[in-house]
């Protein structure tokens, strides 16, 4: 054992939770049951932002 580094004490999630690998840049899918076009854009953190023509397609 040893003393944890200062970075681990200040940022306990550091190195534990990261976006796994590279995310696809662009991909087109045809999903049955959607009423209109749906676009998913991931930000720099990998968080998806969903835009849809119809509100029910968001869920």
- Radius of gyration, CA atoms, in whole angstroms: 19 Å
Helix content: under 10%
* Main sheet overview: 2 strands, antiparallel
Judged by helices, strands and strand pairing, the structural class is mainly beta
Run of helices and strands: HEE
Kindly, what is the distance between the CA atoms of the first and last residues, rounded to a whole number of angstroms?
47 Å
Spatial shape? elongated
How much of the sequence lies in strands comes to 15-25%
Q: Unreliable stretches, pLDDT < 50, 5 or more residues?
A: none
How many alpha or pi helices?
1
Write down how many β-strands occur, each being a DSSP E stretch of 2 or more residues. 2
Strand order of the largest sheet: 1-2
Q: What do the pLDDT scores average to?
A: 78
Structure in words:
By secondary structure, the protein is mainly beta. It has a domain at 19-58. It is 8% helix and 17% strand. The protein contains 1 helix and 2 strands; from the N terminus they run αββ. The chain has one helix at residues 6-10; strands spanning 38-42, 48-52. It has a two-stranded antiparallel sheet with strand order 1-2. The model has no long low-confidence stretch (mean pLDDT 78).
């Amino acid at each position: 054992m040893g003393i944890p580094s200062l970075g681990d004490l200040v940022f306990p999630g550091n190195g534990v939770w990261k976006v796994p690998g590279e995310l696809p840049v662009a991909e087109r899918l045809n999903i049955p049951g959607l009423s209109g076009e749906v676009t998913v854009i991931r930000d720099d953190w990998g968080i998806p932002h969903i835009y849809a023509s119809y509100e029910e397609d968001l869920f």
